[in-house]
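Blinded run. Sample ID left blank on purpose so nobody reads anything into the name before looking at the predicted structure. Input follows.
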Amino acid sequence: MLTTLSLLLWVLAPTPGLTNVEQDFGTVKYLTGRVTSGNRALKVGDSLQKGELIQTADKSIVKILLRSNLGAIQLGPNSEFLAEESTNSQTTIQLKRGALLSTLRKAAIAEKKKSYEVKTPKVSMGVRGTTFFVSQNAEGSTYQCICEGEVETSWPGGKDRKRSKHHDHFRSFSSKDGRPTKDIGRDHTDEEIQSLKEFL
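Blinded prediction complete.
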């Protein structure tokens, strides 16, 4: 009987490394329209966890404060991302479609030695305290604008690191091989960036 009880308690005990705090991704600070995580309709104040798939409907946006006040992100209309990783050292987002604007606290990354990464099917962007915009369209191409700060970008067969003061570097990446193709105009505003910074 004692052995059975001990086994039951072991099964029900939280697995090390999988507590809610350690799986925390962020908190919804603002939304308009319909924003969901699976079957759950999100609202302001909701906590998000690692592994959640966040989706916005038409004419809908959501702004999220990342864990440990690392930074804030805005997901645009008709967009979808997976909170792939959220630990004390790493935050990773998979942008599956649509548009994502990120602004990060450089001091938070330096203090906590934390890295932030956004991935699309063919492009990966590593960030060290900056503001940048990325979108993934239905045809499979990726658009990137480094609004402020530094981003290291990797794609099949290459990578580079660019620094920007004010929207100095923007480009698209091919849907076929992921390589940089051309520069196109930015699809976000300084007002949106400032609105995100107000959460920090």
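Unblinding after everyone has recorded impressions. The first strand starts at residue 24 and ends at 32.
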